[in-house]
Task: structure prediction
Amino acid sequence: MADEKKLGADEEESRFPGRVSRRSALWQLGAGGVAATTYPLVSSAQTLPGTKGSDTDEAMIADAIPVTLRVNGKLLSLQVDPRTTLLDCLRESAMLTGTKKGCDHGQCGACTVHVNGRRVNSCLSFAAMHENDEITTIEGLGQPGNLHPMQASFVEHDGYQCGYCTSGQIMSAVALLKEPCGPADADVKELMSGNICRCGAYPNIVAAIQQVRQRA
Amino acid sequence: MDTFRFIKARDVSHAVQEASRSTTAQQGAEIRFVAGGTTLLDLMKLEVERPSQVIDINHLPLGNVEKLPDGRLKIGALVRNFDLAHHAIVQSEYSVLSQALLAGASAQLRNMATTAGNLLQRTRCVYFRNTALACNKREPGSGCSAIDGDNRTLAILGTSSSCIATNPSDMNVALTALEATIHIQNKKGERSIPIDDFFAVPGSTPQHENVLEPGDLITYVTLPASRPGTKSVYLKLRDRASYEFALASAAVVADVVDSKFNRVRIALGGVGTKPWRSREAEQALEGRAVGQSVFREAAAAALHGARPHSENGFKIELARRCLAYALTLATTAA
Result:
C-alpha cells in the first residue's frame, strides 16, 4: 500500500492521455448534472476548469457572493451561492474531494475538517461564514510519500475497509490529539463517536489513534 | 427558486435591526441568526426551516465567559459548547453544566454549537423533521402524527393534545437546575428572563417554543453565584453509550448539610416538552435526610403528572430511576 503511488487527476491525464479516470468522469457529470438539480442547499455551481457554464449554471449563481477562503494555506477566491455549505464549496468549487459527503446532516462525521485547528462538520456550515478562517482538509495534512503520522498509523493498523469515512476519521483523530482526552481506549471511543464507520473498522481505528498518542 | 440573502452583522444593533423585520422569531421565521449552524442548516436542508435571510452573528463580541463582581457567571451567547464545558470555573463550580455539555452531541458539534444556539435547539421528533407528515409545531393545525405514531423517544411531561415533542438539549436541563437567566437584546433595549419562563409548553400553540419576538437576540446567559459545598450531577440514559439523545436525564444541584438536603434544584431531560424543572421533587427533598427511600419519593413526585403514549410508557420508570440514581451520585460524590 505504502509504495503504491497514487496519481492525482492531472498527473494521471498526463501519463495516460485521453484516459477518463473515475474521478474526472464524476467531475464532468457534476458540472452539468448534479449542480443543476441539487436544491435547496445548492452546490455552488462554480464553473469547472475546462467546462463551459450552461444557462442553468449562470441562473443559479445570479445571487452569488464573493467568498475568500484560506484552505491548506492557500487563498481561494470563489463566487458561491450564499447557501453553499463549506463541504460543497470544498468539494465542488475548490475541487478538494478528499472531504466526503455522507449524511449531510452532521450525523456521520465523513465531512470533518479543521477550522482554526478545531474539528467541525463542514456540512453544517455556510462557506460564507469562514472568511479569514484557517481551513485544513485531508489534502493539507499529508501527501503520498509524506504522510501525517496519523495517516501512516491508519495504514499500519488497517483502520478502514471501504475508506469512505477515513478522511473524516483521520481529521477527527488529528484534532483529538490536542483535546483533553483520558488515556483509555474508552476515552478515545467517546471522543470519536461523531465519526461513523459502517464497515466497523473501529477496533483498528482506536489502535491507530492510540499508537500515535503513545508516540507523541 | 427561493430568494436568499446572507449578511454579516456589524454589531449587535445591526443584527437586531435586521432581524426585527421578520414577522416571527418562532417556527418558520423569514429571518434567522446563524452562529454554529448545527440546527439551522440541518433544518434548512430538510425544508423544515426556509428563511429568506440569514444573519451571521459569529463576529459579534459575545464569546466570553466571565465572573461578575457579584459572583454570578456571565456566559456569552457565542461561547462554543466545547469551551464552556472545559472552562475552569464551570468545571469546578458548575460541574453539572460541564457534564451535560460533554454528554451531548459529538466533539465536532460541540466545537460548533453555541450557548444561545443550544438553548434554541429544536426537537428531534421525526414528524417535525419530515415535511410530508402532519405536525402542529411545523404546520399549525395540520395535526400531530406522533400521538398515535412513533413516539418512543417523545415527551411524557408538559404534553398537550397538539404536541408531545421532546426538548432534546442536555445543556438546557443543567441550566434549568442552575436557575440560569437568559438576557435578550432588541431594538427597545434589554430584558432578562428566568430560564423556566423562557421556554413554553406546547398547549394549543406548539409552534411557539419560547418568548422570543422578532428582533430579539440572546446576548448572554447568567448563572447565580455558586455556593460553597454544592454538589451537582448530570446523569443521562440513552440507547447507546455516546452521541445519542437522552431517553431520560436528570440534573441535580444539591446543598447537603449534616446529611440533610438544605437546598436542592432538580431538572429532567428527555421526558419533557421543555427542560423540566421539578419543584415537586425539590419539595419532597427539602429538609429531609439523605437516603434511598427519600430519593424514591422525590422521583415518584417528579413523574406524578406524567402521561404516557403508545410506545413511551417505559420512560416513567426510567426517569424515576434516573433521578433516584442521580441523587445517589450527588450525595455520595467526593
Q: What stands out?
A: Chain A has two domains: 12-46+57-141, 149-215. The mean pLDDT of chain A is 82. The beta strands of chain A are 65-71, 74-80, 112-115, 118-121, 134-136. The interface with chain B takes residues 39-41, 60, 63, 65, 81-83, 85, 104-106, 109, 112, 118-121, 123-126, 128-129, 172, 175-176, 179-180, 189-195 of chain A (CB under 8 Å).
